[in-house]
Queue: 3 jobs
Job 1
Amino acid sequence: IAKQDRVLALSHIGVAYFAFLVGTFCGLLQVFIRNDALDLPAWLDYYQILTAHGVLLALVFTTYFIFGFFITGMSKTLGSFGPKVRFVSWLGFGVMTVGTLLAIVMIVSGQASVLYTFYAPLQASGWYYIGLALFVVGTWIIGFALVGHYIIWKREHKKQLSPLFAYMTIATIILWIIACLGVVATVLFQFIPWAFGWVDTINVELSRSLFWYFGHPLVYFWLLPAYMAWYVIVPKIIGGKVFSDSLARLSFILFILFSIPVGFHHQLTEPGIESFWKFLQTVLTFMVIIPSLMTAFSLFATFEITGRQKGGRGLFGWFTRLPWKDIRFTALFIAMFFFIPGGAGGIINASFQLNEVIHNTLWVVGHFHITVGTPVAMTFMGVTFWLIPYLTGRKLTKSIQKLAFIQVFSWSIGMLLMSTAQHILGLLGAPRRTAYSGYNGNSEALKWFDGIISNHVTMAIGGSILFFSAMILIYIVFVSFVASPKAVKEEDFVEFPIAESDVENTPKFLENWWIWIAVALILIAIAYTVPLSNMMHHAPVGSNGFKTW
Ligand code: HAS
């Protein structure tokens, strides 16, 4: 791909890994505080570190990495960007980075210890919300640039289906833009006026609902780029092709339809929302599980077909024919493996009654470490190993590959220990989001930590192994950016693996975005209009006589 596109992509990936470095350090502090092994100085607050950890890893690392990946893949599959697309992308990068810096300054200066979910009535400095708004606007600008690049390609290739990678990128951007409407509404119309003191109250229930309207599809904004690697890149690495082009496209469409009208499954224990609407959104949540089950089916099929083609016999012989020594594959396979318990945990969370048991406990923290923290993050790691050398034109040396194995295995072990402890402690009743890790010496609470796995030490050991793994990764990233020898010979150049995908039988209507956007909006209207308008109707009245929106 063109040099300028490489620089653009590398800038995104560079910021992503800087956020990763600081964010994982905050994670290390986190587990030691919870283990009562670290007393923070008076100027540093537990919630401040927790906010930095969540924002830097869950929002900044993921988003920058995702756009770096999209830019590379779009330039690779649709051709290099034109000057306009490139200019708009840089503009988006600039706006997003100004927003990120503003938000980080607010967190570091202790004026935004409101966690990454920034629920009202917790209040941060108004500048924090401005930073968040700029961050989202920046992503929209880059998103529009990528959509523009796609439209130009479509004009030149009339009646052709776009390459699978580009199709999936556009689907993810559509999902992201519709999802952000909720968070933009609450930030602009509720948080900013309230935080700057222009109104004196805030409608808490409405703000939480608008947040989760955004918050749940946010997790699919993280997941879908990982699915792109699983669908498009893994088959190429293992020497096969995409199992079914239509199935892959359909699963992305189902995410556009069902990932948004489901936010209430994060609010099942909250008053102010009638049970009927919670129930409806629970049903829709079960619909959004289907594309993940389709993905699992498709991956198993790809593995089995390719393994058999390579001579694997018997019921499981194909399994041994997969390229286990190739870190690009092994990392992604382990990532998928973690998503089996991760997804099962999600189904438990979404079950209306079972949610009563796990809500606001450490179980949820365990859940998101084996969804975004491993399947997604480890897929990004597995992609990083070849993506940076591909962009910098440097070698992926044998020693780096060995280190990458150590990195991926240590991450897996660390995550296994930490998240298992969190799940068990959560089931026993340990709350999340609390600085009181000793639970004020409550003897009943201290009994939770009696078991070997549920011991707080397990969590700290897991967290320390994770930090060790993170530092190896930072080293690999650094070497791939600047220190590894330049590739000169043909065979030293690292490829961007893209699998063949047969489009002959793929129905064209799958790429008629307007149909899917319209159906998505109808579902959102059904799931949200009545409950949101009820919330606005009962909104508190401020001292100025206006209802606080
Ligand atoms: Fe979740 C809370 C429900 C998926 C992230 N989730 C969270 C939070 C985060 C998060 C960050 O209903 C906490 C938010 C907060 O701070 O409060 N989640 C679900 C459901 C799914 C789900 C139904 N979550 C995710 C993903 C995330 C993520 C993905 C990040 C990327 N989640 C919930 C609920 C809550 C929640 C409630 C609120 C809890 C509460 O009360 O607070 C589904 O999408 C899951 C479907 C997935 C599957 C798995 C398919 C498996 C595949 C792998 C195949 C493997 C292969 C390898 C091929 C059905 C595709 C095989 C190899 C072998 C050897 C076998």
Job 2
Amino acid sequence: MDVRFESLDLPLYSPGNYILIAGPCSAETEDQVLKTAKELHEGGVKIFRASLWKPRTRPGCFEGVGAMGLPWLNRVKEEYGMLTATEVANGLHVAESIEAGIDILWIGARTTSNPFLVEDIAHTIAKYDCQPVVLVKNPINPDIDLWAGSIERLSSAGVKRIGAIHRGFSTYADSLYRNPPHWQIPIELMRRYPTLPMLGDPSHITGKRALVPEVCRQSLDMHYAGLIVESHCNPDDAWSDAAQQMTPEELLKVTSKLKLSRLAT
Ligand code: PEP
Ligand code: MN
């Protein structure tokens, strides 16, 4: 299918000149959001991520603060001038996020696997004149067509600024990584769609903060347009994905040494 990708038109992180989205796995409290955002902003990060709606594997885990966190993300915009990004899993999340002024929406790995939800998200976004950027994570299973299909559904519905996020693929086997990267799959997607901006998500690929720096570097070496990385002001006490989150200081030590390998974003 012929898909045209418009430039994401996102601010680049300097000195490396790549897209860098950073912030906690989940928005937990207003203080945690603002403290983490302040430290990232002071280190030059221009785009802040935090999930409000969390699709957890087992019931009984923290499932996110929901729409209550939207004003917290707005404070991040107002106080630090950062763009904001959050995960959406249905049309209602999309409408609430767009109406609150969120700049970037991403579709999580579990949602990319569901064509009905992707259609709901796509058609809801397309109703708005001022559209957010939409980033599509790979599905949890290693199925390139499901990933490409979600991108095609968004494009056919009229969504303009689309990118992809490589977060690795789940496995039942013992593995160094939480979600082994299977680099050949995102590479094949970029071959099919040479102008598709691809971001690496080393936090969800590795599941361990010690491995995050190496996968950040590999992603940029693979000519990705940038990174989305989890960072929390107090990672060991995080309410989700504690083992893979880094403090802003730890993250910035890594990101400030990396450079973009590709020219177009
Ligand atoms: C996340 O970004 O925190 C998340 C839940 O990601 P994924 O959909 O990749 O599991
Ligand atoms: Mn997470």
Job 3
Amino acid sequence: AEGEADCDVLVLGAGPGGYTAAFRAADLGLKTVLVERYANLGGVCLNVGCIPSKALLHAAKVIDEVDSFRDHGLKFGALELDLDQLRGWKEKVVKRLTGGLAGLAKQRKVDVVQGEGQFASAHELRVTTSDGERRIRFRHCIIAAGSRPIAPPGFDLDHPRIMDSTAALELEEVPKRLLVVGGGIIGLEMATVYQALGAKVTVAELGDRLMPGADPDMVRPLRKRIDKRYKSILLKTKASVVKTNKKSVKIRLEGPDGDSEETFDRVLVAVGRQPNSDRIGLETTGLGADERGIIAVDEFMRTRVEHIFAIGDIVGQPMLAHKASHEGKVAAEVIAGHKHAFDARTIPAVAYTDPEVAWAGVTEEQAKAEGIEYDKAVFPWAANGRSLSLERDEGITKLLFDKATGRIIGGAITGPNAGDLIAEVALAIEMGCEAEDIALTVHPHPTLSETVAMAAEAAAGTLTDLY
Ligand code: FAD
């Protein structure tokens, strides 16, 4: 029984999924309550994810670019690192965004309740706030409680020398010797930051490659660059904790060349994330999650319980902010009675390493595995004028086309700003473009975006001029 509801929509969790859903619901005239345990809105992404990591990656880039001009007529003095100031700047960036969100919530009359929410039933959330417990009854609910980092057995994230991504972003110090456990996007992004700031970085990855979602040819330029910069990159290697003390962690590394033990000043664990579905009293709603903690939803973002929706990291991979926010809009619009569903052809993925690695649609590996007949066009950035003027020539732009229809089905870009450039490929996939559509689109010169046009021209057989 619904009883008397306090709101049309209750959104649990104020990350990019939750705040987007709440704002959209309010804009559509629904009485909306947004419950968030932290004082700041924005979730993992704004507070301890996408935004602070990109701020620090920018700092890393500044250091690297200055360094790369040493032999080209621009010599600066040695780096003077003021960690407090750098941290302060990063926090300012975050505050500006989270503060902005608070303003936007207020403008829309979204009722923000700060406290830890637990379902009491399929129609009621119990919220533990600083002034006691509140019960909120809802007509509809959108679960957007996100995910948290996991650690392999033996890695105690409460130990001061063992960090998850949140602790790494706090930038307490730059360790002399840093071990990054996990060669995925988050691990490699944080490795980029700490290496630039002066740490000797070792990466240990259990699998046989870095960044397993991307095609190996697209990861190669990154590998080549970091091979020169990191102390070592160990694949097929299992790291385990031998001993910890206040100042360091002794680690056993078991890899193809045998076992060894090494001591690190800090260890960053970045081996994956787990949905928060086990911490919200989900069972009282009649819903459950699978063995990975994922809540199942349909294309309307609806769970098995008709008036309860779920979005973002808690509904599974890819765990990305732009997926969460798009799903949030769908859930809000469906609740408001609009005909809408989540039917994106592609959710682009980006590693903001240096160089960046970005991909959208099917990868070549996926196409092969699924027996898709495809044509491929690859454009090396060494033949792009803008790329050379950035003193970078290692980039690659790759496009994949369906052999039968000629339509673009996938693309990948490696190089500086690949994350920005991949948006054009995503649009092309959504719109069902053929190579010629991109080739005939006049791209500004000289830009890195021309590499997409050039790859398309190569596919269309019209490539003439370079540079
Ligand atoms: P979250 O952002 O996890 O938000 C969930 C919110 O719910 C949190 O604020 C939490 O406090 C709240 N909550 C949970 N349980 C309760 C409860 N019981 N009561 C009250 N509140 C609760 N993605 C990208 O797309 N691009 C990137 O560059 C990128 N970089 C990243 C870097 C790092 C270091 C990390 C860790 C992640 C990164 N991500 C990135 C992933 C991105 O942060 C997530 O995909 C995104 O935040 C998921 O959004 P969400 O709304 O599902 O959940």
